[in-house]
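Per reviewer request, we include the raw input and output of the structure prediction for the construct analysed in the revised manuscript.
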Amino acid sequence: MSLHRHWSAFCLLTALAMLGIAGCSKKTSIEPSSAASGVQGVSASAAFLAYEHQVWVKVPTARLDAQMAAVREACVSGAHGRCSLLEFSQSAGEHADGKISLRVVAGGVEPLVGIAAAGGEQTRRSTQAEDLGQAVADTTRQVEQLQLQRALLLEFQQRKELSVSDMLSIARELADLESSLAAAEREAARQTLRLETNLLTIEFDTPREPESRMARLREAFGGSVDSSIDGLVQAIEIVTYVLPLLIFGFPLALLWRWLWRRATRTRAP
């Protein structure tokens, strides 16, 4: 059997398999994944919603370190369910602040927010959700198609009448399929993670301390010094521009005055 006939048979099998998958996908609806439907606080109708929460908390400066450490410990230890710490940053100084970003199961969002705001105040909160239903359906369909194509290729590869060139062609096709399948499975895993967990970002802020009279005096004095330096710099720049005119212009003016007087004396009777 020639290579052309082999590939024609394989393409026909693949086309029939694709039509079968497409027909099944039209007749059946997508059921929520067991992982997504098992998330606490997520109903079946909302199983394909990926939630993101942004929370702003104001705590006393003296409690900032302890509050952030408590949230981090609660996440890392899994005290309120599956949790992954994504970002932990903190700045010190006159106005200290911090930020924690993590992924946690839906049931752990409120406890972690409560830990963050203990002894402080939750000043603002924002929640948004993205519907991943269509994206999950497309990815699932893509994975199924690629898996079926791989199975057909592997079955086709077992034929004894294939030539060496046929085997090499199938090997190349399998390599491309494996790469595409790995990418599709990574995307499916990413979507599953977004459905099973919520993205929670907590931004910590501390109250600004009222400035003392001495601090205001230092600030005013520093501003006046800066203004004086700026004025001196501008004066130097002006002198730098005018100085060449004075150096060359003054002698020319004296020469012009001398020539003018001489000319007027010569014409006098």
